[in-house]
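Treating backbone geometry as a discrete language has practical consequences that deserve illustration. In the encoding step, the backbone of a single protein was reduced to a row of integers, each denoting a local shape. The amino acid sequence and the backbone structure tokens for this protein are reproduced below.
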Amino acid sequence: MEEKRDRLKRSGRELAVSWALCAVCLLGHAAHFLGDKASSIHVLHSTGFHLSLSLLTLIGPGRSLIIEGLRNLVKGTPNMSTLVGLGALSSFSVSTLAALVPKLGWKAFFEEPIMLIAFVLLGRNLEQRAKIKATSDMTGLLNILPSKARLLVDVSSENFGSIVEVPCSSLSVGDHIVILPGDRVPADGIVRAGRSTVDESSFTGEPLPVTKLPGSQIAAGSINVNGSLTVEVGRPGGETAIGDIVRLVEEAQTREAPVQRLADKVSGHFTYGVMSLSAATFVFWNSFAARILPTLSQGSPLSLALQLSCSVLVVACPCALGLATPTAVLIGTSLGATRGLLLRGGSVLEKFSMVDTVVFDKTGTLTVGKPVVKKVLTFGSHQETNLRNSKGSWTEPEVLQLAAGVELNTVHPIGKAIVQAAQARILPKLKVVDGTYTEEPGSGAVAVIGNQRVSVGSLEWVQRHGVSIDGKMVDEPKIESIVYVGVDDELAGVIYFEDQIREDASDVVSSLSSDGVDVYMLSGDKRTTAEHVASVVGIPSERVFSGFKPDQKKQFVSQLQKKKKTVAMVGDGINDAAALASSDVGVAMGGDVGAASEVSSVVLMGNRLSQLLDALELSRLTMKTVRQNLWWAFAYNIVGIPIAAGVMLPFAGITLTPSIAGALMGLSSVGVMTNSLLLRLRFGSARKASSGMPTKSNIQKNIGRDNQIQQSKGFSRAA
């Protein structure tokens, strides 16, 4: 990592120097237009000064790029660097020859290599910066592990032992450690004593804590919620589930990606062709033209041959070709940033434009990622009663108010959801009698409110506290969870929960499917819950996979890639990190800054799933612009190179001098830049076209707002 950071610093210095030289060059041109008013800086426009600037660019910031290009040429694998290096050297050589031999009548254009190097280095630096950030941030995942653990020592039949703090790296297999409420688990192991609920959302992605009893597996990095545990260490210090995920991500990031850019696919043949044509032009006009076309009188054959061969190199200088990709990518990524899309590098846009398969995580991606009260089922005739009257019937507000009074004392997500639902209905808070609150991890809580004992939790928990069911029928939900509320010996009601589905999820899935994109869903949750969510958003059941661990998600993505699929993985947590990194395009929800956003090539900063469609549209428009730029650059060369080689000389007496060739070269670059800037208008038009009509997402948004208004007044009749 230090080597990569040093390379990025060198790249930044080269970029700064190249653009400083470019600015001085442009200032020189301004001095030329100002004339006598800028006599003090008139020297900046002199040929000698521009020659010095160009030479400094080639031996300074452009040196590594030119050396790389020439090295690839020697190896027989020329690429875009070869084209850029060849173009910069040829334009510098012709300009130098024009400056040193004025009688040739050529015009020097030293600003061309300066500007070409500056633009290419800018694109490279941005891409390098994005890549190194995605790699380096992943190492921060290990920082969530505690540095120390409470080791249980001197345990015997006579005493319970004592606790000492030791570094986690010194733990050995078989050691016993104590984990208190609120602690992060320091090592993977097996629970040997105690009972608690543990938040494993970092690994499973599921919002509800899991009950841990003796014999249960527990993973380092998860959070102990509300009970003390004694854990036997199962793996030595430093070897953890988070470490496994980091290794999976590193393997995916170091995987060699196939060459994607269109320019690199043809640059090798183009380079060889230009060099061969330039040499052929020189040989023809120096050796054969005088005998084949004796009527031509252009002075020395050598002078004409040199002029035309240099014109071929200059007119074929890949300024437009070199700018075709980075300018469009630069506009595309900046457009994404203004729309809340973080795009890490130009290659992401190219890969995203070819995506034909999208794999969604469930919790936190298709759903919001936290439980909410769905409905309250009560028992009795729903007549208003005194809360202190343990005999009678119950209403929904009464059941919710009593449950919230108990759950005010807990940190469990289910308890928080009950309290939030009561607050949304503006129900008065009920005070628990001091000293009566009791909570058992994984079961529930009980407390005395007024003169009533209120128990909230599982069916077994409320029955243990004397609640009689008396044949009451309660449907077990297919969604997240269910909580029973008992008052003294009576079942007052049942509260149902679910993880809310994102309002734009079904709209996004529908749009992707209609666009011919295959959609899958992976989840660490149970089958019934996964299929319920899939049925709502419109994903076929045969493309729904439940109970998947992080390594299984990564394997599933790899299997799709083996079938020649271009896969985009959309997720939001540590459990998705390996799959996100191994996919062709990893897309992270931007609600939280975590592992998913650190390893993903695209981050939806607005935390809206509909931004996925924006990113897909932007990538396709950007690559369409790149292809248009490349066609423009090649069409310019197809027309310009033959004229520069002297094809029109025998018929019309037209030759293309290096100065005119340089002007045409600049014109082609302007055309490429203009077409890239038009991407803003195209993307704006595409967004208006997609949002001009009322969409399902907009309709759902309005319905969601109306439901919130209704909920502030009371639960709906349907609930």
